[in-house]
User: Fold this.
Amino acid sequence: MGTEMNEPEPAAIIRRVAFWDLKAIARIEEACYNNPWSQDQLEAMLIQPDLEGWGLYLGRRIRAYALLRFRTRHAFLETLTVHPRARRRGHGMALMQVLIDRAAQRGSRCIVTEVHETNLPAQLFYQRTGFEMVKVLHRYFDDGADAYLFSARVRVTQPADEVCS
Ligand SMILES: CC(C)(COP(=O)(O)OP(=O)(O)OC[C@H]1O[C@@H](n2cnc3c(N)ncnc32)[C@H](O)[C@@H]1OP(=O)(O)O)[C@@H](O)C(=O)NCCC(=O)NCCS
Assistant:
């Protein structure tokens, strides 16, 4: 008789998130952040036409998600979050690759994101996935901490703009 522990992990599938995923996403938010987005806030964001939500699923369970906002020249990564129990298995990198492909498809020159100055795992993750730290935003966060602005080019042939340098 097989136990849950012996069952192989299902292959990861990455697709756009659906509204019925928002409860699970809100639970991951609560597990990860001091000021998590609520289900209602997530829903209000996802109906915005410039925002896309992408999720990584193992079977039916969402294990990582990202919110990507498309501006005129660049895409802004609002968040990329992996469930605490699913980290360091390459899920973040797999999701990021899809976001980079998607940004290129939509004509973005780069993806930018802001990282709390104390969030070393995220800083290392972004460096590993091709981002560079391009700017310090002083006292950016509510707690008075700086943000580091990270940027990754999605089209190497495009000329630089102010946030892509
Ligand atoms: C940052 C985060 C998205 C990484 O997701 P992940 O699925 O664990 O990352 P991956 O397994 O794809 O890791 C890719 C690489 O990033 C780097 N990395 C990721 N997490 C790291 C950590 N905790 N410490 C050091 N390096 C790390 C490593 O180089 C890693 O490669 P390796 O495992 O072969 O050494 C995840 O830790 C997370 O959700 N953190 C909380 C939310 C957050 O801070 N999001 C970013 C700001 S919105």
Summary: Confidence is low (pLDDT under 50) at residues 156-160. The radius of gyration is 16 Å. Helices lie at 22-32, 39-46, 91-105, 120-128. The chain has four helices and seven strands.
